Write the structure tokens for this entry.
Amino acid sequence: MNYLKLISKSEFFQNILLFFLVLIIGLFVSIYWAVKNVYFRHIYARHNEEELVPNLIDLKIDDVKKILKEKNLRFEIIDSIYDNFNREDKRGKVVTQDPNIGNKVKKNRRIFLTINAFNNQKIKMPNVVGVSYRQAKVMLISAGFKIGDSIPVLSFYKNLVKKQELDGNFVEENAMLEKGTKIDLFVGVGKEITKFDDKTQLKINKDSLVIDSLLNSVEDE
């Protein structure tokens, strides 16, 4: 007991205890600041690696390339649609993007784009030969085609479509054509013609005798 009292009263030992106490506190403080420094460096580094996703909507691909290159970002076209295809100023422009505008992403991140198609949509040609002219128009318009010339031809069956053509060539069923293509229809007049006046013009179209002056009567019916 006397020995412990002597140590506790000794200035030398008190200094040693104080030294170790300061050393331990200093060690804890050093560890704290080291961990804190590493943490904030990590946060700062991540902050520097992130970019805000720019607005790419309604931009052409050339403009998209330029903007994303400046931000160290990439892009990929994942789909094309036919909205506003009839407007040439909309063709090839961005419609949607993912991630959305303003999102934070890492550098070199890929932005996925949907654009308006550059070329018109291809659709299948239906077979309207052998159906009525009225039904043929419904079938073609429903499929995405337009009605071109309606050419009357001699036939026993009135208003029956005898042939479907494009630019003077027969169009096969399931042929892939651009949406909005005009299809010419050869339609039976259902009557035999024996007399022609001066205004009636005859022309041979392959194996059919075409009567131009009957066009209006066929369309009216």
Confidence is low (pLDDT under 50) at residues 193-221. The chain has five helices and 13 strands.
